[in-house]
Structure formats: structure tokens, C-alpha cells
Amino acid sequence: MFDTGCVVSVKVKGEDKKTLSGVLIDTKSGLVLTHGTLVSSLLTDQQINSLQNKGILQNSFHHWDAEVCLQRTNKQDPNKNLRSILNSSDICTQTKNETWQKNLYSEYSANVQAIFSLKKLQNVVSFLLPENKWEFVEDFSSQETPDDQSKFYVMLSCFIILKLNNWKSYNNNLSVLAYDQLDKGDNLEIEATPFGGLCPEIFLNSRSTGVLSNKAGGILLMTDARCVPGSEGGPVYLVGLIITSLCWKSNEWVGLSMACAITDVLKRVKQICRVEVTTIENIFRARNNLSQLIESIPLIVIGSNWGSGVVIGRDDGHSILLTCSHVVKESDYNTVKLKFTDQQKIHKGKVIYKTPVDEQFDIAVLTCPLNSGKYIQISPKPVAQGDKVYVIGHAVFGEEKNLEPTITSGIISKVSSINNIPVLIQTTCAVHAGASGGAIVDQYGQLVGIPVSNAKDTESKASYPHINMCIPIATVSPIIQEYVASKDASILENLTIKHKHIKRLWMLDSIHTASKL
Q1: Number of folded domains in the chain?
Q2: Rounded to whole angstroms, how far apart are CA atoms 484 and 477?
Q3: What is the pLDDT of residues 67-111, one digit of tens each?
Q4: Residue 490 sits in a domain of what CATH number?
Q5: Own/partner pairs for 57-60, CB < 8 Å, 24+ apart?
Q6: How far is CA 26 from the centre of its chain?
Q7: Per-residue CA distances from 411 to 144, 254, 390, 425 (Å)
Q8: Residue 83 domain-assigned?
Q9: Are 206 and 240 in contact (CB under 8 A)?
Q10: Which residues contact 57 (CB under 8 A, 6 or more apart)?
């Protein structure tokens, strides 16, 4: 028996071997799936056009040599430990003969049955990830031409079906979860092989975990789980298949990987192969509470700029919100529009107070004539290093994309304090443009911080989404709560702090500077 994940390779005479991750979808018939970008450089312009027009390519791969590397299911002997293995007299002989490799995995030749595209996925990709604004990694070791990049983009919405030769059938159910059963914030696990077939002894079927950060169009999934080139085609257990591991928007790295919902892919496989994949079973699971918090995170739009806000309470028929001062810096001469996920109406916000630009606590307080819906409770205690947290905000995608907030996961990596008072917190969550002013919540869904900026190298211009600076809510909440109780807006002036040591921390006295989101 074998693990579900695998490595697929295709070799054409005169070309380097191409490798990507894949998934064994049917152990009875020996069917394997991988992603279409595996062969993007091997297809002719005519084949690309045919694929775009007809949605499928068949009977065009007789000159391709395909192989699939499957990892044997690991059944460890609990009576063996590392010391007994290392002291074994057989280890040198086994290493010399490389028989240990055969115990790890098996290789099968395979035939490419078809390459097919999913129109639904193609439409979502072209809308959310337009080719002129997004870049994707194909081969991390080579220089791509514009033609290569164009082919690669077309193949983002394509998949490859392979059938293993000399396969010995066995039963092994594959449990899948439908798109509509998924909530943002759900834990996800990827099984893939970094760098494809570079070194399967080390990388084959490596695991990484994260959360479902967002989803779109009934088919596209986004996750913050670690993913590197070569992972495309690998399973996201088991809700999807990775379609791109690394991507950039407007030359800024986006720390999210994209996947396609598995149920859409399997439906097309059944149509093409005219077989019933009997080893697939649908499962269900309970909803998580994290996804309910997105109703408290409105999109804030001022002119052509956007950011995020967080509703922290209701008072006298109004909602009270926090955001970053730089998000509403143009509010003096522009309308502040608030768009909530659960409402069609656009609400007008009023800025009660905003700290001066470039002050230590980049924060603003708003009200909105809305006395319904949910709000996020403020945590009664400060965060500590190592605490599990989530960032919720309208990152990457603007108003025109009409997406719900994105969720990323991580921990509190650092708490900077002065006189035992937290003045700056950092997280390992991926934080991108548009997330400023959103929420950092703990595992109980309580507000612990406000994301302000990520780190950016002023020389290379590279941004680091997983290094970000955030306002500790425990430090500013007493001032905000006093304002709510008294209705005296002058109290909020205490949010403007002039302290040289705090300013030094926020300005980062190094080659890096804060990058406003």
C-alpha cells in the first residue's frame, strides 16, 4: 500500500525531465492526478490553443515518458529504535546496495491519459489573478521568456490524468470534503514534495500545515501553509490540489498558495475516463467559530485606497471601530465607506480621532450608524510570546474583487515592552497590503492587536509578510474604553504618544523600514 501523495515526472527526448507533486486518486485502477504546469513548456502553441478552445487534449503524448514515484505506507516496528537500527550489522550492506531506497518508495511507468482544463477555475483565476498584475514561479532554476510565462498562466487551470502501468489493484478509500463544507480559518494540511523529484529520499511527501485563508468562485482555495516550487499537484487533505506555490502581485511576494477544489477536479476525471472512482467518499465536519468573526471586519474604502477595520462594540445606536491612522489619512476630504461582509449596503463612517501620521501608535477610532451585527471582544489580558494568533483583514484583493476578509495563522513571535508595558508586537502570520487596521485575534477569537505594517528592505525593495509590526490592544484599550464611557473625544488624544524609545522601536533602526500596508 502507498501514501496518497506522489511525484510525477515527464521526460521528452532533448528536454530536461519535468517533475511535480501528484496524488493517487484511485487505488483500484491506478489513476494519478497532477497539475498542468508540469508540461507547460512541452506543449506547442497549437496544443495550448486546442486546450483553451476544447478544454481537453488526448492521444498526443506517445512520445512522453512518464513516471510516478509512490511512497510506501510506513508501518514502523515499535520495538525498533534508532540505536538498534544504527547498531545493525546490515546497515552498511543495505546502504551499499541501496536496498533501503526500495523500502521507501516504488516507481511506476505511466501513460498520460488526458490534459484537461476547468473553465470555472480559469474564469476565477483570470478575474482574481490577472496575468498583467500577477507572476508565478514555474522553474526556480531557469530564466523564463514571456512566451513561457504565458503558457504557464494558461496551464494554471489545467490538470493531467495518468494511469499507472503494471499496477496491482487494492481498496483504499479517499475521503474528500466539498468546497461548501469549508470555512475560512479551517486547519489544512498539505502533502507535497518540495522541488519535485530533486531528492525524493529527503523531500517525498513532506507535510505542512496552515489554515484556509480565503476562497473564491466556488472553486479557488487560498492557504497560508508552507508551499514551495514542486508542490503543485500535491493534495491539500483532502479538499484540493495545489495549483501555484509562490506568487507575486505587483512585484510583492504574496505569502499565500492557491489550490483548486478537489470535487470539481474529480467530477471532470469521471467524465473523461468514463470510470466510477469508487474509492472516493464524501465527509462532513462541524463549522469553526473563527469564520464568524469576519462579519466584524469591514472593508474601509477612501478614494482609490482601501484597508481594514474591526468593530469592537456598540453604543447609542452606533458601531465603534478601530483601524490604522494611515488607512483613513485622506478622510478630511474623502468619504469613508465601510463595507461589511454580511450586508449589501455601503455604510458611511465618521473618523472620531486619528493619530498624526508616523506617530508610534498608528491608530484611528471611527463610528458608523449601524447597531446590529457582531463585534469582536477585546482580550482582557496582554499577549505573550508564542501565543497562537490569527490575522483577519482585507489583504491583497481590493473592493472590486468583492471577497470576504482573508485569515492567516501564526504565533506571537515577539513582544517589545518599555517599563513592562507592551508597545509593539510581532507575529509570524502572513500580512499583506490591505490588512492594515484589521484584527489580530487569539485562539478564543478575542482581539489582541491591530496589524500596521510589514518589514521591507529599502535596498532590495523586498517585503517580508511574515515579519510584521502590530499595535498591542491591551495597551490602548483603556483609553478607548474610557472614551466609550464618557463620549469625550478629547480622551483619545492620549493615543498620540511621543516617546523616543517607542518611536525608535517602531521606526526600526536598521536597513529595514516599516512598510505601510
Answers
A1: 2
A2: 10
A3: 999 998 865 544 444 444 445 555 444 444 455 455 688 999 999
A4: 2.40.10.120
A5: 57/114, 57/115, 57/116, 58/113, 58/114, 58/115
A6: 27
A7: 36, 19, 8, 11
A8: no
A9: no
A10: 43, 47, 50, 51, 114, 115, 116
